Amino acid sequence: MSDFSDELTRPMAEADEVETSMLSGTGMYIPWLRKQMETVVTGGRKEKDFAQTTSACLELIQEALLKHEWQKAAEYMHSYFQILEDTDTSKRQAAPEIIWRLGSEILYYHPKSNVETFSTFADRMKNIGVMNYLKISLQHALYLLHHGMLEDANRNLSQAETWRYGEKSSSQEILINLIQAYKGLLQYYTWSKKKTELSKLDEDDYAYSTATQNMLNHSWKTSINFCALIQIPGVWDPFVKSYVEMLEFYGDQDGAREVLTNYAYDEKFPSNPNAHMYLYNFLKREKAPKEKLISVLKILYQIVPSHKLMLEFHRILRNSEKEEHRKLGLEVLFAVLDFAGCTKNITAWKYLAKYLKQTLMGYFRYVSKQGHQVLRKKIKRMNKSVKRYSIVNPGP
Amino acid sequence: MDFPSSLRPTLFTSGPLGLSNVPDLSFMCSWRDALTLPEDLPQSAENVAPHLARDLRWEPETPGPYPLLPPNPAPWDPGLTAQDLLFRGGHHFCKRPRATLDVTEQLSHFLWHHGDIAFGPLGNLMQENFKLEGARSRSKKKTVVSVKSLLQDLGGHQPWGCPWASLSHRQRRFSILGGPVLAKSVASLLGELLQEELAGRWGQLLLNDTVTGGALAWLPGKTSLAGQLVYPTGGALDKLCFQEISLTPGSDPQVLGDPGHIQLRGPVRQVVSRTVQGEALLAVRSDYHCAMWKVSKQGRPAPLQVLQVEKGATGISLSPHLPGELAVCSRSGAVCLWTPQDGLQRVYKDPKTLVFRDPSPWRWADFTAHPRVLTVGDRTGVKMIDTQGPPGCGLLLFRGGAEASCQKGERVLLAQYLGKSSPTSLNPSLHLICTQFSLYLVDERLPLVPMLKWAHGLPSAPLLAQLLPAPCPSAPQPLLVAGHGGQLQLLHLSGEGVSAPRLAGPPQSLPVRMDALSGFPLLEPTSQRQLQERLSAPTLGLTASVLPSACTPGLALFHLSAAGDVFYQHLRLQECSGCCRNTQPPRDPGPESHAPVGAAPSPGRTPTPAVASWTPQATACCSRWLKALLKVPQPPPLWTAPTFSHRHLLGYKQQPGDEGRVPAGLRAAMGRGRLLRQQDLGSLPTAEPPPAPESGPEDELSERLSEAWEGRGAAWWERRQGGSAGPGRQVRRHKRRTQLSSTFSSLSGRWDLSDGPSPPPSPDHLSLEPRPRPRPPATPLSQELWARSVPLERQQTLRDYMAKLPPACPTAASATPSQASSIRSTPSRRQAPRKKSRMGF
């Protein structure tokens, strides 16, 4: 643990390696350049045997992984651990991450591996090289979560959350926020479970009040966990969704609206269609005025004209009084039908047929009001056929 | 087209490549990718482990791919290697080896082998007497040397390769005094050009981007199991072959008859085929030309259009939405769209790169889920542009930067729209972007944030990729990625409906062509080396077809090597994958979910994969192929020093014809400090020619080459041109281009032009440069009147709608779409009068 300080400078140490592998003048890194050069350079400094065996071993592990030979890969991995004793500092420091990446992959697929093995490996790896503690903890927790071990995962995340090393760097900060958010998500799961239990309980029951108390506690803790992360630009769908659900449950509509508005409209965030969808669904639940809904969907229409909410948007626009809305409604519908995945969307076609029918009827009415006797008859016939045929049931 | 209802948590940072203080949240483990968060409710938490098929695997049937078609009759020459280009000295003081181009060695080779060319002119000028100002102290008598006497001293003796050959004092003095002067003139003229050329060659050796996209295509035939392989062959890869193949799920594919072919005037770099609305189209990219054919139901290609790209084409793609639409990118940074209706139109032009400055002129374009939106890519990023919108607008789909946590020095090598294969279970809005480190899946509805990232770790540039349809419903789709060096990886992608795309199992590597070596009989060392060299040729093309079958789905995989050979490999989905049988039982909640990972394989799984072995048919194929290969003549040795004699140097003087022109031209060139080129001299002096290389079969190229070798290249060209030599070079070049493009495609072989309704090879040629051009004739896709005012992409769907209507109400039908179109805002571009097409649409 004495060489912490140079471990922190690891990303810098790799920089000079990059320099030599650039394609002359273009700034492009060519991973296979070294191999090409090895065929040429005969004199000069040769790699030590140690370095040669470790790099050969790494290649063999990667090859075995791609051939799904987990057993073989595990055997090679056993030999690869020697890299932790490499005298080349930059290599030694890069090693834990490589070992973790390959090792976890092997243990995930190895037929004889189990959760205990994986956990032991993860715990060991966390403490080799401080830089990886948080990342490995997070992945370990996800692994446990996946195997249904919510409590273990929660314990893991709690441990990681309190971990600090040296001065708080921005990357550490983000990782800790992420870990807290995942922890919050786990708490949300338990909260959600309790909520369903609660819905089964009688309100006059004694257990009911304790359960509510419990839930209140949960909510408060969880909101702290989510708050920090969702301020950072990113895609946080599961966190935002559960946070908003909890806020809504406790009647904090304004809070929920603020979270969702920020998530959807903050310019630093990527233009995530889901953010707009969540906001729209929230406003719909809230029974917001139609104008508000239209403005939210209008923005979504500009981002993703093929979104499935567009059909709903069309429906809202169609029933609107305003002429411009009705025009936009048709535009929306046509835009949907242009997209490769939507050309066979039966609902969209039904809406189009309905729209056309409406327009035609209006037109006929107009003509028959002004037109001649002959025209009127013709139009009457057409009118009948339009009424009779629809796109879904072509003819009686 | 559902958008994933809940995306994987991702940090979003903007910034340059390799921003180090941001944690990379894409952990690059295939298992990590499977760990999507459980949906909504904790009740489902017990069975959250999504079905990550541990043994999802395509098992090769033979240990390696084997040759399907006879070898390319042209000899294969691997070309320049790193050894030819790089400095081979020791790097005693360099901690890490650095690639240094060896210009001096190349230059000294040139001076050594072509001394007469390098020094001849200068020596000739100095023939009489000349003064060497080297040493002032010495008497004048000693510094004046007569070249004639020098040469007489040599007496016809050439001390090639022997620095210690006996030399007279005069010669030694001359070489000491004249050496720096003589070498300097050559080095100053050639050095820079040579350096540039070597750097270009070295760059191409590291990354040959001309082959991006691949030159092998599968044209489906009448049934899904029959079709044609389209690939280039011949020494220069300039013969486009059409080989009919019949696939059978149970056994090896059958090669039907001899291939038909089209002789082109240029190497084929990319072949693309696409079937849209029942029309099969084929597009080919060469260095400066692109051509398109329409393939009839019988499999006969009829030429549609030849386009000329002045600056060089870098990529083409065919529209998956409308038949006959072709996007072409050029090195100048322009992207053009050719449609049978509107001809050629430029949709994008920007000589600069998208995100940051990068010198590479490589550009790429592809289509998207919307018929009128294209992607435009370069080394730094990929942008979506609306072909109908105002120029300059667009949205970045992928940015080489911190958004996708790109590394320092990472560049885009390939961008592909994945919605092309029609029965896709993935969303049709996904794009694949490959860099030298990773591959990314980006959804065009959520630009900049990759949905999936996987570090492929390929040891060569991933320039080829193909997404295949799922072998059976609800199975993951295989995505093939191939490196230029021949390595192949297969990824299993799943992500139906509202779930985000993810890897459904660990990616796997497939056998490379070198693995086929074990299928060949043992050979003597020379032949063995020839075979190995041939097998290790880079990959130029890749295509695959899924063979649906009742029991185990198969995958027919074809590769094209740079030597022009087509290899075949059959893979079958491992039985225990269970993806097609839905045998995976839902995990029971409770303690059992804590069970060891994978310790209890579900029933029906066979944990040991079957070991692939060579089938007798495959080995028979191999030995047949080998027999044909050994008959292919070895490539001639690269170059041997010709035995020049100094008499040519003197001989220049005896030529009365060139008396005036050559020295005058030389003097003029030297005065300007430029190289003396052949054009400056007009016809060449007819010196004693060096032995010409053996001329092969009678073809134009070798004829021209041998004429040029003997110094009659210009005369030959004039003869070819029919004696009408234009006065200026510019005119000649233009004519050459015209001729090239008009004869770019000439049918030969099986297809006779006269028996089809197809027009003769198109005489049209359109420049991609923005010069005024006549509007090409346009064709309405159908005769119906309404179709004119309806946007193209909607015509088909509207026609489908019309088809549903009974014929009884024609008036209503014609009124319907026109109503629709009147609401459309700007159909102005389509108002141009239309004429009947000449192109056969």
Automatic annotation (TrEMBL), chain A:
BP terms from Gene Ontology: transcription by RNA polymerase I
Residue stretches spanning the membrane: none
Q: Name one GO cellular component term.
A: RNA polymerase I transcription regulator complex
The record's listing under InterPro entries reads:
SL1/TIF-IB_Component, TAF1A
Protein known as: TATA box-binding protein-associated factor RNA polymerase I subunit A
Which species does the entry assign this protein to? Orycteropus afer afer
TrEMBL record, chain B:
Looking at the record, the residues that make up the TAF1C helical bundle domain are 529-748
Q: Which GO terms describe its cellular component?
A: fibrillar center
Q: Which GO terms describe its molecular function?
A: RNA polymerase I core promoter sequence-specific DNA binding
Comp. bias intervals (Low complexity) = 810-822
Q: Give the Pfam families listed for this entry.
A: TAF1C_beta-prop, TAF1C_C, TAF1C_HB
State the SUPFAM superfamilies in the record. Answer: WD40 repeat-like
Q: Where is this chain compositionally biased, Polar residues type?
A: 739-748
Q: Which residues form the TAF1C C-terminal domain?
A: 776-841
Kindly give the Gene3D superfamilies that the UniProt entry links to this protein.
Answer: YVTN repeat-like/Quinoprotein amine dehydrogenase (2.130.10.10)
Report domain TAF1C beta-propeller positions.
283-419
- Give the compositionally biased regions (Basic residues): 831-841
Annotated region (Disordered), positions in chain: 584-612, 682-791, 805-841
What PANTHER family does its record include? Answer: TATA BOX-BINDING PROTEIN ASSOCIATED FACTOR RNA POLYMERASE I SUBUNIT C, TATA BOX-BINDING PROTEIN-ASSOCIATED FACTOR RNA POLYMERASE I SUBUNIT C
- In Swiss-Prot or TrEMBL terms, this protein is called TATA box-binding protein-associated factor RNA polymerase I subunit C
Origin organism is: Orycteropus afer afer
